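ligand=S-adenosyl-L-homocysteine
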Amino acid sequence: MRVFFKTYGCQMNIRDSEIMKGLLVRTGHEIVGELPKADVVVINTCAVRAKSENKAYSLIGRLKKRGFRVGVTGCVAEIASRSLKNLGADFVIGTRALTSIVDAVEGKIDLDLSDRLSEIEKIVDMFDNTSRMSQLVTVRTSKHHAWVNIISGCNKFCTYCIVPYTRGREVSRPMKNVIKEVKALSKSGYNQITFLGQNVDSYGKDMNDGTTLAELFRQVYDVENIKRFWFLTSYPSDITDELIEVVAERPRISRNFHLPAQSGSNTILKRMNRQYTREEYLELIQKIRSKVDGASIGGDIIVGFPGETDEDFEETLSLVKEVKYVRLNIAPYSPRRGTVASKLYNDDVSKAVKKKRMAVLSKIQHAIQLEMNESFVGKTVDIIVEGKTGGKSFGRTIDNRMIFLEGDIPEGECVKVKLNHATAGPIYGELVRKVVSEVAQ
Ligand code: SAH
Ligand code: SF4
Ligand code: F3S
């Protein structure tokens, strides 16, 4: 069958789509890039906010009207299977039942929310054994930059968040499997790897055998051809001194720490069940900056959490001004059914106030990014090209700044770029030369 995928949400979902596509291709199905060519459409959904969930519902409606067979996977599938069926979904597959995708597409089952993660692990293990097979099992989005899951699920239960309910508890992949996958990727021409987890620095906590993200970095760092390792997303209080040290000593590991603060107010952080205070968060950032040369910090903020006063919001603004994030995701609070916050607290910050606070925060962040980016003009940086758009090639620096340059440079190339024009978004520059040394910074 010809299958079209529409993927919403985070990198976890992108990776899950790659795995499902691989399972389908391996069993003789075809992945198509254009909707009209499809026999079946798979919508891989995100439930993090009402807006993302609603996108899935409206797409199902539109596709069913046009007569498509539609399957739903991902986070909405896990928590709202009945509504999805009522809307006309032909099959619904949960986040931990990815391996059912083939049976579902072939019309053999229409619902699977069971916990079959261990089966995926077996499959990944099996395919890790030879690079040829690992290419077959997953249809990767890029030929040069690979997402590698190291831990799934989350045990943190931030009061606003649906993820622990959609992805279940933390399960780490055995380090030997991850190492095998990285080696196979290196043989297949990949030069960038991103280790993924909802809480990537919890890696190994469920194993009690010395597995940690720091240890993983030590073990994979010298795998041939890998020029950059990234890791996403970090939970502030789980970052260890050991991890900071390992990153500090290894220039091919990204200098970017994505450390969502969510709020700058201790009252709100407590109500969110975030396990750190504003002061501890700022201390951590100072520590990272003092130890890791060229470190940059990314973040997420929720505005309008229940009970957030003007004073609480001011605390968030001052935190953002102090940290100077290289990138910041800002989202308005959205109550999620079943979460502690939705049960305990009224969604009492009005839509208008949330909107206003988003705008104020975005404006400040915009100005910070522009000022930071301007300080790069005149400098030369190394980037790995990740694609092209509008006649320009683009890539990122090792501290996660987006760089655009003229010309058609092949994806995966490491190049030196002299920066000459800054915006609050990308920095623009011109090609100096290709990088021959294997260390790209
Ligand atoms: N594990 C990461 C975040 C995963 S969810 C962490 O601990 O920070 C991605 C982002 O979505 C969160 O950082 C948060 O900013 C946002 N988010 C999650 N639940 C939300 C909700 N109910 N309303 C608004 N934003 C939310
Ligand atoms: Fe959600 Fe919190 Fe887990 Fe992040 S750490 S996924 S915000 S519960
Ligand atoms: Fe969305 Fe699920 Fe990711 S809720 S953010 S797709 S883990």
